[in-house]
Write a structure and sequence with these properties.
Blueprint lengths: L3 E7 L13 H7 L2 H6 L4 E7 L17 H20 L3 E6 L5 H15 L2 E7 L20 H5 L5 H4 L13 E4 L6 H10 L2 E3 L1 H7 L1 H8 L7 E8 L21 H14 L2 E7 L10 H13 L11
Parallel strand pairs: 1-2, 1-3, 3-8, 4-5, 4-7, 5-6, 7-8
Length: about 300
């Protein structure tokens, strides 16, 4: 795992259905994400916030809300993430809503093509985000980034990163899913995404789900983690715009993060959908930073590793 990390703020709720995710980057900074990571021996650079178009808060046009602005923000994110990867640093995208995963993951995929690496994407989320304009009436693009990355979406979005599709569905492992539209569910099955939903986690446990999600990683694999804070149960993380009951507990989430850390393969990270306007005393940001710390080696493990 790289020991040089760069924080990149993307303060926008351009793809979301509720205002407030634009304040997420500052909430994570208030929760001391930089100093805490430095405490684990990492060299942390904070690039500050990207500056993109304002949210016009308009209804959908031809099935998409704010498509030009979403495309502009994702191009900015793509360029910033790609630059840090090219410089041998680990980008940590501080969102912002989850539409920004399109820009960050297209940049990671481009970097993997440059370097001949395989890509594995862990999508930690309550939602599959595999909608298209034909499947969802809202037009909110934060419900579409995985579909766009896999080549299903408007040209302005699927071409970011220079190759269509940017990724294969076979590279994605989704964890914690528990809210999927009926048409979206059919589409997920048609495309063969590997989904470890909450029923699977209830039946088999987080350990088994993560063992399968992380299987076959090797030294030539770049692991990208896209962490939507609504992955967590709202009891521990109320500060999101799209809460869905029945998510992973604090302990399940810690195990998930520690098992990712154990691989030593994480090369990039998104932290998205934190909405301080809906939070209680920055509780959700603090929980998110605590879990991010576990991605970088904080562990509850007392017994020797075998």
């Amino acid at each position: 795992m790289l020991n040089k990390v760069t924080l990149i703020g993307a303060p926008t709720d351009i793809g979301a259905g509720a205002r407030g995710a634009s304040m997420g980057p500052e909430a994570l900074r208030v929760a001391n994400i930089g100093p805490i990571l430095e405490g684990h021996g990492l060299e942390v650079k904070d690039r500050g916030n990207l500056s993109g178009p304002a949210n016009p808060w308009l209804p959908p046009t031809d099935g998409y809300r704010h498509l030009p602005e979403v495309a502009a923000w994702n191009r900015l994110v793509h360029d910033a993430v790609y630059e840090e990867l090219s410089d041998g640093r680990m980008p940590i995208l501080l969102g912002g809503d989850h539409c920004l995963g399109l820009g960050s993951i297209s940049a990671v995929a481009r970097h993997c093509r440059d370097t001949g690496k395989k890509l594995r994407v862990l999508w930690l989320d309550a939602h599959a985000d595999f909608n298209t304009s034909a499947l969802t009436p809202s037009g909110n693009i934060h419900g579409m980034p995985v579909a766009c990355l896999c080549g299903f979406g408007p040209r302005e979005l699927i071409e970011i990163g220079g190759q269509v599709p940017a990724i294969s569905p076979k590279w994605v492992r989704q964890i914690g899913i528990r809210s999927v539209d009926p048409g979206e569910k059919r589409f997920v099955h048609e495309q063969g995404l590997e989904v470890f939903d909450m029923r699977y986690i209830d039946e088999m446990g987080m350990r088994h789900a993560m063992e399968l999600a992380l299987a076959t990683l090797d030294a030539n694999t770049h692991l990208h983690v896209s962490f939507d804070v609504d992955f967590l149960d709202p009891e521990i993380a109320p500060g999101v715009g799209t809460t869905v009951p029945g998510g992973p507990t604090y302990r399940e989430a810690q195990l998930c993060m520690e098992m990712i850390a154990d691989t030593g393969r994480m090369g990039s990270l998104d932290v998205v959908e934190l909405n301080p306007a809906l939070d209680v005393r920055n509780k959700t940001a603090q929980v998110a930073v605590d879990l991010i710390e576990s991605l970088f080696g904080k562990s509850t493990l007392m017994r020797p590793k075998v």
